[in-house]
Design brief:
With 230 residues, the chain is mainly α. The chain has one domain. The chain contains 9 helices and no strands. Helix 7 runs parallel beside helix 9. The chain is globular. Belongs to the CPA3 antiporters (TC 2.A.63) subunit B family. It is a multi-pass membrane protein. It is found in: Cell membrane. Keywords: Cell membrane, Membrane, Transmembrane, Transmembrane helix.
Amino acid sequence: MKRLFSLIAVLAFAGLFATLALDYDERGAVSSLARHYLTEVPADLGAPNVVTGILITFRGFDTLGEVAVLFMVAASVGLLLSGKGEGGEQARDDEARPPPSELVRNGAEIVLPMIFLFGAYVILNGHLSAGGGFQGGAVVASGVMLLMLAHPASAINHAVLSVTESLAGVVYVLIGILGIALGSGFLDSHILPRGDFGAFISAGAIPVISALLGIKVGAELSVIIDRFRS
């Protein structure tokens, strides 16, 4: 009987997805909403990367909520895993843990600088090309994870990371409030000069906000990864 119900469930989902696939019709032209943002973001915000302009300015409240969720995840992981791996038990785990292979150690020495450099590039150029604060912060955190794999005994200063991500969050909110006071709404990027279109220093406050997001996301993800390691 259990197998019969499982078979019925599988057939039901197969029928549902087959219907969705058969009814899918690729859009041949850009919708009016997409056309609005594709023209409005470069013209009004001065950002060639339309996605970053939308995420940081037009839906800044949502982005703030996403960062808050990530912070709560980091805090929850730290709370759940606190107390584990302390004292002699941790020391025994370190002794029993096999050392990283030579390939990982040597590879990390070559790849790590490029990962951190690429993460910084993605963060700083998020208003010009594909990427932004979230993506760059995740790249930096992946470098931290590789560092932990290559050097298991290395320690990460959680206090410094906590202060760093807290300051980034506070400045992020302050810039948002400045947008209300000096512009037309929360996180209005017009509080800074728009600059020349396509230049590194351009798009108003978008690069600053993107950098703050990158710092915050990179720090929080690094703490989460280190919590699972310990």
